[in-house]
Amino acid sequence: MGTKTNISIIIAEDHQLFAEGLEKLLTSEFINYNVLAKVNNGKKLMHLLNSYTPNLVLLDINMPFMDGLTASLEIRKKLPKVKIIIISMYTNPAIISQCKKNGVNGFIPKDTSIDILKESIEKVLNDEDVFLTGSNVQEDLEGNEDIYTLRSKLSPRQLEIVRIMNQGTTSNKDIANELFISIFTVETHLKNIYQTLKINSKIELIRLNLKV
Predict the structure, then answer these.
(1) Which domain range does residue 84 map to?
(2) Cβ contacts of 106-109, under 8 Å, gap ≥ 24
(3) Which of 154, 162, 164, 190 reaches 20 to 30 Å from 63, CA-CA?
């Protein structure tokens, strides 16, 4: 695939400190890749991919507007040859299984050592899939891994409705006005959201605290 400096990477990570640290590591003499850009949500990533085709995209799962699982599906449809690695603290088997179904090439826990990170990226760039499950990764005791898996089944519009409700807007009319859609459309989306998440009300949806 050429020299390392010719290998381009885009980082999609909403924690600025982690994203900057990852960029410094990847561009250091020790690894020496070319980081094209950093974005903090999936929508920005997809917009960027209209102009750039990197060799590799490093994705976080928990990002606003479009999460990593949804973004990975969109990337695979749009750019089937681009390599995708998800770097996350959520190592629930259901999430890793979903990554594989989405066509992701690798999964690396966020507590992985630099050496293993380097080796894993090299393997993926050489057409070898790598799925790691670190023993020291902190699992979410409230079961949010399953929530992220469920959230990946929601459409972008449904995720927008969830995001607006998380910000305190719960009236169907207000949601409709913010999204420039009809109240009937909001009601239909909510009905489908409840069915997907196996809940029955807005209160239950807010209590789930889907971090959109």
Answers:
(1) 4-131
(2) 106/130, 106/131, 106/132, 107/131, 107/132, 107/133, 108/132, 109/133, 109/134, 109/137
(3) 190
- What are the tokens at 78? 């749009």
Q: Nearest CA to 98 among 139, 57, 67?
A: 67
Q: What is the CATH number of the domain that holds 178?
A: 1.10.10.10
Averaged pLDDT, 95-106: 89
* Residues β-bridged to residue 87: 108
The pTM assigned to this predicted structure is 0.64
Q: How far is CA 86 from the centre of its chain?
A: 7
Q: Give Cα separations from 54 to 11, 73, 84, 212 (angstroms).
A: 10, 16, 10, 26
Phi-psi category of residue 2: left, alpha or beta, with phi > 0 → left and psi -120 to 50 → alpha: left
Q: Pick the last residue of a domain from 71, 99, 131.
A: 131
Residue pair 85/72 in contact by the 8 Å Cβ criterion: no
> 3 or 96: whose pLDDT is higher?
96
Question: Is residue 54 located within the same domain as residue 125?
Answer: yes
